[in-house]
Amino acid sequence: MPEIHLYNTLTRQKEPFTPTTPGHVGMYVCGPTVYSDAHLGHAKAQVSFDVVRRYLKHAGYKVRFVSNVTDVGHLTDDSDDGDDKILKRAALEKLEPMEIADKYYWSYFEDMTALNVLKPDITPRATGHVPEQIKLTQELVEKGYAYEVDGNVYFAVASYEPYGKLSGRKVEELLSGTREDIREEKRDPRDFALWKRAEKGHIMRWDSPWGEGFPGWHIECSAMSLKYLGENFDIHGGGMDLQFPHHEAEIAQAEAAGHPFARYWIHNNMVTVQGGEKMSKSKGNFTTLKDLFAKYDPMVVRFLLVSSHYRSITEFSEEPLRAAQSGYARLRDTMLEVKRRLESAPEGRHVALEGQLQQHVSTFNEALSDDFNTPEAVASLFNLTRDVNSALTGAVGKDTLQAVLDAYLALGGDVLGLFADQKSDAGNPEVIQTLMELVIEARQNYRATREFQKSDALRARLSAIGVVLEDTAQGTRWKIQ
Q1: pLDDT band, very low/low/confident/very high, at 427 (cuts 50, 70, 90)
Q2: What's the pTM value of the predicted model, to 2 decimals?
Q3: CA neighbours within 13 Å on the CB side: how many for 132?
């Protein structure tokens, strides 16, 4: 297995990755709160960690990937005030809370499938793990790290000295800017809710030792990651906006209760819109993935995201999307050309191209092993594409073409997840190729009989669905735009 180095937010440095159990990786990533459609910011996080997962598997590790779904307890104000986001949406759409949760749960995974994000091995939902959250809360109360007031249970931040070690914030400094009036029942305004009393009319409620209520937002990830990955699991991921307070609270809850927690913390950066403002639902400056997919191939969107490092900001506007569309087309078209050449290629090898291929594959793996540097990995694929196109001006043997195609599918497909349609063959490729050959033959017949209007109409219909015909010295070829 290659030596992988990653940037650990907990230690604020890049360090070698060594899993707790040799050959096995336990990985937890914070998933969505399912109360509305996903946007590009959600895609940035999930695509980033999908590549991490894919590369670990490519490197030979067996990975258990757990990503939760928050379907209760996430309030509109992280200070334990405000409405539950799902209840608020349910009132707006005049639906039951679980209808909202299920509606956007399936919508979210539909979008992730379009982006070729692998499904988690386990997708725990907060509502399905209330007993585990109650148990962890009880442990904290018993150990003196939490207290109950009138049916609400709070974590006592001052009682846990290491609080702030992930974000670098000191406990005594957290009072600065804190709203002192948010809940007078708290012993300290910095304390956060582990369990909330369900007020009259609150629909989502469960029995607990402290009365009917529902869990706080932070407790679910501590409880569920420990349940499915155990203590000292390897990697915890999420957006940098979750670093504080959510991830800080997760560590405090688990470790104060006596459960050693995640060893490596990875945080992805944000997506910004014009002017450098963070894309978010609260700001109303987001574009849903469904709206984006109506204009761009999801693989173009994924290409845009992997073209920037997970710890770098991704800019969202028409210009970088058009650049991504052009760049992705270049890689995909060369791969398809290699696939076509394979059908009639002579036996033999192209020694020079195979040497170049070996170097590009090595560069790709070195880039991913260095904190999952996807921009460098993408650059190596472009360099490979340049050399392949140069070699294709002459004859290239079948063995070499197969090795090149395998590299595209393994690196661009299996690791970066960019060729979903090619890995699934988008139906039967032989049937599609045969149909396109018949279309090209029909167009040639129209031209031979000088029925140019019919020939142009056929070409225009193909163009309307994104299929381009190119007339070359070797004959007419087709590609997807």
Answers
A1: very low
A2: 0.85
A3: 18
